[in-house]
């Protein structure tokens, strides 16, 4: 039995992984693995100094990540901010702003992320999903 261990967060055996893949094929989109479902995080704020904010870079607090060493694992991973809009576009009111984790920020598990379009200030405190791809393992 082969076990995968990722930075003290996920431990899953190859057999469990195969079972999850089989479940996905049977149930369709209802079931999903952690890789495509994403890791939970919160949009804290923009990167800032004492007076000036930099909306190009957002600060994301990842759930279960408590130090900068663990946060470096997420560098390069994709981030999704999913929200609902008023008007339907292509049959859906759900929209996504995609971004990428660039580096850790500080010593407490916060990371910096840059999005294709800057996140709106309304999203402060909102949840984001950090996808576990592209993988460097």
From TrEMBL:
One of its GO terms (cellular component) is ribonucleoprotein complex. Keywords: Ribonucleoprotein, Ribosomal protein. PROSITE patterns: RIBOSOMAL_L35AE (PS01105). GO terms for molecular function: structural constituent of ribosome. InterPro entries: Ribosomal_eL33 (IPR001780), Ribosomal_eL33_CS (IPR018266), Ribosomal_eL33_sf (IPR038661), Transl_B-barrel_sf (IPR009000). Signal peptide: none annotated. One of its GO terms (biological process) is translation. It holds the Pfam family Ribosomal_L35Ae. Belongs to the eukaryotic ribosomal protein eL33 family. This is 60S ribosomal protein L33-A. It comes from Trichophyton rubrum (strain ATCC MYA-4607 / CBS 118892) (Athlete's foot fungus).
């Amino acid at each position: 039995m082969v076990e995968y261990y990722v930075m003290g967060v996920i431990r899953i055996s190859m057999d469990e992984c195969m079972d999850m893949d089989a479940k996905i094929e049977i149930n369709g989109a209802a079931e999903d693995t952690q890789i495509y479902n994403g890791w939970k995080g919160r949009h804290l704020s923009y990167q800032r100094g004492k007076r000036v904010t930099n909306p190009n870079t957002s600060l994301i607090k990842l759930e279960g990540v408590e130090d900068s060493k663990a946060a470096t694992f997420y560098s390069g991973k994709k981030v999704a901010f999913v929200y609902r809009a008023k008007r339907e576009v292509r049959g859906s009111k759900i929209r996504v702003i995609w971004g990428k984790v660039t580096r850790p920020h500080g010593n407490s598990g916060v990371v910096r992320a840059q999005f294709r379009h800057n996140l709106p200030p309304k999203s402060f405190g909102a949840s984001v999903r950090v996808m576990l791809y592209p993988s460097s393992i």
